Amino acid sequence: MTSVLHVHVVGDAKAGKSLAVKWMIHMLEARNRKTIEMREAKAKQKNSDLPLSKKKIKKQKDSINVAHGRTRGVRTTTVTVANERKGYPSTTYIIHDYGGQEEFLSHHANFMSVANSLYVVVVPLAAVGEHEKDVHPRSTTAILDRYLYWLRFVFSVVCKQAAFPQIETHIDNTKSESSIPSFPGIPMITVLNTFVELIGEKAAQSQLNCCKPFLKLQLHNLFAINNTQEVDASDEEEETIPLPDGDYLMPAEDFLEIDNSVNLHIEQLLDTIWHSITV
Q1: DSSP 259
Q2: Which pTM value belongs to this model?
Q3: Dihedral in degrees, nearest 10, Cα atoms 152, 138, 220, 18
Q4: Among 62, 93, 105, 171, which one is most buried in terms of CB atoms within 10 A?
Q5: Could you give the CA distance from residue 212 to residue 224 in angstroms, rounded to a whole number?
């Protein structure tokens, strides 16, 4: 038995989407290898007096080939990750890396409105020229303009009712108990690509300080946003309050930060994606 999640990665050309996707695939494959090796080690433990913690698990070098061209159209990669708990289903990630050129948008729309989907909008805080070292910070206005462009595009092409199940919200009446359908919103993660290794920590932090509050304010002004919340083990038995109708359903933290050139916080992005399908 396998659970399936479509991860749609969108954003401007040269936003860093393809390199971020490469890191995600690399880490998912490494997780799968580690899980399988741990299972094999546990299976062999019965025939060995050596504690499991002392057994050697082969480590994979944490590096990827960063050379890549611009994505034309859409590039789809499928990765299946075994569950660490025996008897539980594995998870298949179908990752769609969409080219940022506007001439491909009508083509993208054919792939995006499918069940079990999550949308990752990559927002570059720096502009990249023709050469790798030709990188400079972008204005807050330009960042906001392109961010809203992609939010509106996703919202316009994704058929919420077809792609995502509605939640039945029960309402108590004096005569009877009834329910109304509730749709919390399109699952979406906003990723700010800081390019900190290229523009420097001071410039990157300045960009974040200026952009994040402004982007968050405009996001909540233009769209109805619901946020998922972490569920503590002590609260699992308590009745959860249904979320109201919304446009987008986002993690508790509205924005994640990465620098995909050095694999900064990609692991956190994967954990956030995983949490979005387990809550």
Answers
A1: B
A2: 0.81
A3: 50
A4: 93
A5: 18
